[in-house]
Design a protein that fits this description.
By secondary structure, the chain is mainly alpha-helical. It has helices spanning 5-15, 20-27, 31-38, 47-57, 61-74, 84-89, 91-102, 107-123. 70% of the residues lie in helices and 0% in strands. The N and C termini lie far apart (41 Å).
Length: 125
Amino acid sequence: MEQTFGSYVREKRMARGLSLRGLAAKLEVSPVYMSNMENDRRPAPAKEKLDHLIEILGLCQEDVERLLDLAARSRTRQVSADLPEYIMERDIVRAALRTAKEVDATDEEWQEFINRITQRGTQDE
């Protein structure tokens, strides 16, 4: 079964030893709201609550990115919360994304791009 935002939050909550009610209290939402979110009857909350959830769960960067991607997917056709500002502040990023969309860039082509940028980053150190 494909992982959802709700199932991911439940997994991370349980790994931290938090009860549903305990997490709801820390997040300042009702247990019903929390249950509906974990059972995918409600989409991910707004960015402020997401940031608080990330803090409460003590997620590493990889887990944060996964959570944000799943949150966006839960909200039909939205971009992960950490990306819109970066995309909208840079014309070249929007142009690159549109070009990739037009030519239907493959996963391999995107991975090659990521590898080149990552390699450049390590050369600067």
